[in-house]
Amino acid sequence: MAFKHKLKGALREGYARLLFHTGLCALVDKLMPPRLTILAGHCVRPAGGEWPAGEHLPPDMSISERKLDEFLRWFGARFELVSVGAGVERLDRGLSGKSLVALSMDDGYRDNARVLTPLLASHKASGTVYLESRPLDERKVNWAHKYFWILARSTPEDFVHRFGELTSDKDAFHALNQHVCEGRVDLRYHLKLVLKYDAQPAERDRVLDQVFAELGGDERALCDALYMDWDEARAMQRAGIELGGHTVNHPILAKLAPPEQSREIEDGARSIERELGQRARSFAYPWGRRWDFNEHSSRAARESGFGCAVTMHAGVNTPKSERYTLKRLAIDDAAQLHLLAAEACGGFELLRRLGVNLSE
User: Fold this and answer.
1) How many CB atoms lie within 10 A of CB 229?
2) May I ask the CATH class of domain 33-140+227-344?
3) What is the pLDDT tens value at each position of the chain, 360 positions in all?
4) How large is the C-alpha radius of gyration of the chain?
5) N- to C-terminal Cα distance for the chain?
6) What residues does CATH 3.20.20.370 cover in the chain?
């Protein structure tokens, strides 16, 4: 399995470089049907000055302003830059002419308002920011941010030890401790997966709240450093940036009963409508992998008035794409332009039509 994974990665890399460096990207783009490519990120790290969020967020949650500017410049010269909602409307009408690229950012971080907005304006482009509503309404953050903050001030081993002392969820503790004992590479990531998928949510949140408080955490201050407020959201809306839904609390929707899923999605949509004066057009599933949402999630998004929903699975979108499982390409500082370009030009879609999937 490891050999097959490495082989697939090598083939993917070689194919993307071939298209990008020979100029074949432009030829494939013309040969393939028009498409909408959606880029997906979280935070934009400013080129200069302070970045309060940067002290504890993992690397895959940010992209530098310089790198994002490079991406927007390259894509803007070859594709039309749009918001997700506008792109889907074009798909509905029957896309023709230039293919589209939409930049999207999840959660609603303050740097989106302060760094992303002027960057998009400099490219005369729009984009989409998906808002998790509880941080804006209550100035409270989800469990993952407390976890990241704690590990910026504690070792993973110390955190797991303290978790074991405080929790009644012994299965989760044993799973966490097993990763510690095995000396797993990227231990922080593996511990997060246990907390995300295996721990009892209420008990996980209670323990994280206690450890966060013991280390001197201030939830309001953390939220203010990380997340925009509604005034900044309104300023982004006036600047032409689409603001979409992303639930209230950023849960794994598939782990919730259908009525709870509906409340998460609908209440988030109502917050946006109340504060911004209109219903959001598009929705992003929290976490976004196919096991993080289900058919109830898609139905709830549709019933809440969202015209489309995006995932975190790689690929491009065509007029035939299912509107509530749209694909996106993750971007962070490790993202490579030749791989993104090969996907956006239709190169990997061409291989899929031939029965070869190198995209993920």
Assistant:
1) 18
2) alpha beta
3) 577 778 888 999 999 999 999 999 999 999 999 999 999 999 999 988 778 777 789 999 999 999 999 999 999 999 999 999 999 999 999 877 889 999 999 999 999 999 999 999 999 999 999 999 999 999 999 999 999 999 999 999 999 999 999 999 999 999 999 999 998 888 999 999 999 999 999 999 999 999 999 999 999 999 999 999 999 999 999 999 999 999 999 999 999 999 999 999 999 999 999 999 999 999 999 999 999 999 999 999 999 999 999 999 999 999 999 999 999 999 999 999 999 999 999 999 999 888 888 876
4) 21
5) 15
6) 33-140+227-344
**Measured between alpha carbons, how far is 221 from 224 in angstroms, rounded to an integer?**
5
Cα gap 17→332, rounded to integer Å: 19
Tokens of 139: 């100035």
